[in-house]
Amino acid sequence: MNIDVQKVYNSTWEHYQQAKKNALERRFMLEHKDTAISDVIPGFEADKLEFGSFDKENYAVLFVDMRNSTLRAQNVGAEKTFLTMHVYLTALLEVVKHHHGKVVDIMGDGLMVFWGGHKAREDENETNKFAVQNAGLCGRDMLTICKNVINVIIEKESLGTPIDIGVGITFDSVIVTKIGIPGSYDVKAFGDCVNTASKYSAKVTNQVKVSKKVKELWPKGPNGTIHFTSINGEDAYLLS
User: Fold this and answer.
1) I want to staple 69 with a disulfide (CB 3.0 to 4.6 A). Which of 5, 50, 109, 155 is the partner?
2) Tens digits of per-residue pLDDT, 121-165?
3) CA 20 to chain CA centroid, nearest Å
4) How many angstroms separate the CA atoms of 60 and 134, rounded?
């Protein structure tokens, strides 16, 4: 199903207006949560893992982050950066939700999202092919929403220059482990594909860069509308 741009715009605008109201009234509301955000890694729960235990699973991994965010923050100042992030992250999270991704981490101006794993296969019949497809379509829709929602609101509200993003997607094995001490812990994911997806996202602007395995796993169909463009000298592709 195609993403509803107007629906994402309306939701983002509503969240932005609340953030704007809080900023004007100097009321910064925080939601407190005892569980670790990485509990959304499909198939793993922090409270049920022992410290130092680990498991290995295959996931489609998506990284998205903003280009030149530090310079932008310096130019527009703290309040406009605060408001911009409520537009930017809210809209991207709506895209992730639409494509049934699991947000593993929010890193300042970026997101790390997973699809797949044994739990998704059991509960949602999400095969590796569909995990890869969901991740790729999510990345493509992020570009659409950045252009037609995020930057439209930024211009309308005079929050600074338009935002550019980069998206990187891979698929491979990931090590999931519980790190920390009682009362202060998290479930973290490690693997070459995680690092590669992060590097991919940092090297493109308003594009989706994917690994060779993503292309190989992508479902084939006679009326497919997704295209993969090879990148000279790399085992990677641009998805469009």
Assistant:
1) 109
2) 655 555 888 999 999 999 999 999 999 999 999 999 999 999 999
3) 24
4) 9
